[in-house]
Design goal:
By secondary structure, the protein is α+β, with helices and mostly antiparallel strands. It has one domain (19-72). It is 14% helix and 35% strand. The protein is built from 1 helix and 5 strands. It has one helix at 2-11; strands spanning 20-23, 29-31, 37-39, 46-54, 59-64. It has a 5-stranded mixed sheet, with no helix packed on it. The longest helix is centred in the N-terminal third of the chain and has 10 residues, at 2-11. The structure holds zinc ion. Zinc ion (ZN) binds at residues 23, 25-26, 28, 40, 42-43, 45.
Length: 72
């Protein structure tokens, strides 16, 4: 399954766009990682990477971390 995904990425570079995380704070896109949390490249906000995928944005929604997680 993973191999298939890699091949798809290799063949169609446009697929990369669908691996984005949308920052709800500054409306920028970040590269999706394996982590549940990412730091926005644009505004340095810690984002919860949700499983909610927006077809309109072609990205997963990254919500602002509400402080229910201890960073340290
Ligand atoms: Zn941001």
């Amino acid at each position: 399954m993973k191999l298939v995904m890699k091949m798809m990425k290799f063949n169609t570079l446009n697929m990369e766009k669908k691996e984005n995380v949308f920052c709800v704070k500054c409306c920028s896109f970040n590269k999706k990682t394996e982590d549940n949390y990412i730091t926005c490249n644009n505004c340095n906000t810690l984002l919860d990477v949700t499983t909610r995928y927006s077809k309109r944005l072609e990205a997963y929604l990254g919500f602002i971390n509400g402080g229910n997680r201890r960073v340290i």
